[in-house]
Write a structure and sequence with these properties.
With 281 residues, this protein is α+β, with helices and mostly antiparallel strands. It is built from 12 helices and 8 strands.
């Protein structure tokens, strides 16, 4: 996710506590906010099978190539990533991967808490989660995880790693590849789509979220759009059609027909009750 703090802090320290622990101490590695943004973004890009080189990373983060070069040098020096001498491809080391997964888990659980318990919208929750992910301790993170029923994914459907393991989930296909007349279930909103606050808001307003079912009414490739309408209960009997650009649709993953509902997490009612008793709601 492109964030201003990634650029603002990159010229300072890449490691902080991470540098202190680079010698291989036992506990989990902490990173500064800027370093965490870089590690998470590299992880996202690999998951999306995108080439991860400094120029692409700079585009993704919205910072200058010089800023990325400086941070990459620091992260490599601290043993968090490697740079291929020939292709200049960036890869996370095992230590870097664990740091990225740890940050993502905190971020994802914060998003669940903010959207399903506190009641924030997707875009606002995503921004707030960026602040919380660096403030949560492991103990508090584990308690939130338990309260939320140990969700297998973030609210947008991207898998949450735990203890170095990520549960297998269907890969799905791009929504933009779905044919007119077909019925699909939204599987996930990719991290690339999450970077666009306006797109997140649009998707939430039209019920385009993991587990919702849509029929593709029309694919107008010459216009670069597709029209679809929701067919599960959430859309109502007279659901209004939604027009979505094919570029945006390519950032969503879907499954054919009506997928198994157990794939999609629902926050236990006890979480909302606890929040209400604590005066959060």
């Amino acid at each position: 996710m492109a964030r201003e703090q990634a650029g603002e802090q990159a010229g300072g320290m890449a490691g902080g506590q991470a540098g202190e622990q680079a010698g291989g101490r036992g506990g989990p590695r902490e990173t500064t906010e800027a370093a965490a943004e870089y590690l998470m973004t590299i992880r996202y890009m690999h998951a999306e099978e995108q080439p991860v080189i400094a120029a692409r990373l700079a585009e993704r983060l919205g910072v200058s190539p010089a800023t990325v070069s400086g941070m990459v040098t620091r992260l490599a020096r601290e043993g968090l990533l490697t740079v291929d001498d020939q292709t200049r491809q960036l890869d996370l080391t095992d230590v870097g991967r664990r740091a990225a997964e740890r940050t993502f888990r905190r971020h994802a659980l914060a998003e669940w808490l903010l959207t399903e318990v506190v009641g924030l919208g997707w875009a606002e929750a995503d921004e707030e989660a960026h602040h919380l992910q660096h403030a949560l301790s492991d103990r508090v993170t584990d308690k939130i995880d338990e309260l939320l029923g140990r969700p297998p994914t973030c609210p947008h459907g991207n898998p949450i790693p735990r203890d170095g393991q990520t549960a297998e989930r269907p890969a799905g296909i791009r929504l933009s590849q779905a044919r007119a007349g077909s019925e699909v279930t939204i599987l996930r909103v990719t991290e690339e789509a999450e970077e666009d606050a306006r797109l997140l808001t649009f998707l939430q307003q039209h019920g385009i979220r993991p587990g919702s079912v849509f029929v593709i009414d029309e694919v107008a490739e010459h216009l670069g759009t597709m029209r679809l309408h929701r067919t599960d209960n959430g859309g109502g009997s007279m659901a209004e059609p939604v027009t979505l650009g094919l570029v945006a649709a390519a950032k969503l993953r879907v499954l054919p027909d009506r997928a198994d509902a157990s794939l999609f997490h629902r926050v236990p009612e006890r979480a909302r009750v606890a929040a209400s008793m604590a005066g959060v709601l």
